[in-house]
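Reopening this one. Same input as before:
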Amino acid sequence: MKTNIFALVMALLLTACNPSDSNAIKPYKDGEALPHPKINIINLWASWCEPCRQEMPILSDFATQHPEVGVIGIALDRKENVAKFLQTLSVPYPIRYHDKDATAVFRRFGNNTGGIPYTVIDAPQCNFRKAFFGKITAPQLEETLTQAKKQCQYQ
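Same output, byte for byte:
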């Protein structure tokens, strides 16, 4: 009996501590609500994209340091590839995948070239939006967050 309870507790702990569990990765639906009503960072990426992989720790650190900002990653990739990649890296923000026509997702976030990585800092309540092609840096994120807060008069 004790062995069964121990095994059950361990299984629950392992499941709860693994944010990259493939069951936690959900499909992105066009028009899906963003995670935060004030300021969001939307990162379009793919598991096969090396600059995308390199910027994930930067975005993870930023998300941890700025809980007032919603961060979401949208992988333009197959669920299996995303799940496999996320087993190698802990990501504290939601990850979605879109494995159909990426053109609609690109258009939704203003990416007219289709290149990735592509990151948008969006504050919809005050019409602030700034986009970055290529690997984003921590200073770019910090500076743009300051600009968004100033324009939107957020503290």
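So the earlier flakiness isn't reproducible anymore. For the record, The longest helix spans residues 50-65.
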